[in-house]
Fold this protein.
Amino acid sequence: MDNDNPHSLDRYHRQMLLPGFGEQGQKRLAASTALIIGCGALGTVAANMLARAGVGHLIIVDRDFIELTNLQRQVLFDERDVADSLPKAEAARRKIAQINSQVRVTPVIEDVNHTNIERLAATGEYGRADIIVDGLDNFETRFLANEVAVKHGIPYVYGGAVGTVGMSYAILPHTEHGDSPWEKAGRATPCLRCIFEQAPPPGMNPTCDTAGVLGPLVSIVANYEVVEALKILLGHYDAVNPALLSIDTWANTTRRLKVARAYEVGECTCCKKRSFEWIEGRYSAGTTTLCGRDAVQLSATGENRLNFEQIADRLRAHGEVKLNNFMLRAQITDVNEPFELTLFNDGRAIIKGTKQPARARGIYAKYIGA
Ligand SMILES: [Zn+2]
């Protein structure tokens, strides 16, 4: 084994034996970029397997930091990461560097929204991703990812899991000129919006907040996403499952929903009419109640970088403050309802201890400033 050569393909021997891989396929994976949006349960499993498979560049975007309750299912993290208060994207980078040093990981500690998703997926410094992998926990951002996939002609693998039920589906989007390799192969699939016309309104669907989530189920769904992603990156569009997979691991049911005709029979605003409402920011909100966290996120307020040292000095009068390169965290205990405030470099904040956006905004205004 030639373990010292950083470009050696030896480590992929068992994978290269598979049909459709080989040395050529492996080189193709090494030259590929995957954008993983969300690095929670789905995202950690996907990042782990894509790195082990030798996908050359992983852009991992996540807005959050690691908590103890994540460890039940978020396989790249451990207790040390919780103690260090690391952002998920950075912890994932460190872990993957130990797993496969041939893989380049770009951690992005940002909230994915209409202002940055095109830059991250297609038009920014990382270039155009070859695939978008869904590690998300909400439909609003999925619709955004779906639109970027369609607009820029990037395949997108959707995955979701709540309770004991999971779903996954690979989108090989219809593009503006119909000239993508998968369209030439006759393998384009309906987009997410062809299938789900609208995001379910908040509160209508169970979330991991209310229903919990089964760790191994998330692994199953994420691994299914990775299988489809590898087929796509290798160019085996004929092998991609055109159906939407729905699996209930507790009721022992697996369904394949045939959605292939949804594009032809529908009038999809996104992939048929090519109107990109989510990218335009028509549905964006400044605050988000975070799934399962008793917490509210406040969007970045401006371009000005915050001065962590100054803010930390001020907040120490109200409770315990911790600082690292990525964020500031304060436990504010001198109030009736104690809360935890986490500030990120980009000005974004997560207020834990409330689910009310108005209270979160009030706390931010009082302790950080408008
Ligand atoms: Zn569509």
Summary: The chain has two domains: 32-265, 287-367. The chain has a mean pLDDT of 90.
